[in-house]
Design goal:
This protein has 128 residues and is an all-alpha fold. The chain has helices spanning 2-24, 30-36, 40-45, 47-72, 76-100, 105-127. Keywords: Membrane, Transmembrane, Transmembrane helix.
Length: 128
Amino acid sequence: MLTAGLIVAVLAAVLHGYIFVMESMTWTSSRTREVFGMTAEEAESTRLLAFNQGFYNLFLGIVTLIGVVAAFSGATAVGLALVFAGVGSMLAAAVVLVVSARDKARAAVSQGLFPFLAIVLLLLALAV
């Protein structure tokens, strides 16, 4: 169960890396605007905010990956603490998104599913 939880945490980190790319590198592209449902003007006016937000997503992914590497390297307690910090923050951000904008529920589920599953699997592994 521990390995499954860590693998799902890696999937969450990879997804947040992709979100980083969209928010910080391709925010004003037509494809990214379509994903986020924005006009060119909206994307341009929020470009700097999205750029900054993208880095938050990147850092959460990095923390999670460092935790996974640490856990697989034998530093299980430290590794899991970092993984829980990373995926817990990802899940909290998804909850904030759905609470603040009900019309973004699909995006919140997409953003929060892997972190939620990782947390459940890791908690089950620790309970055994």
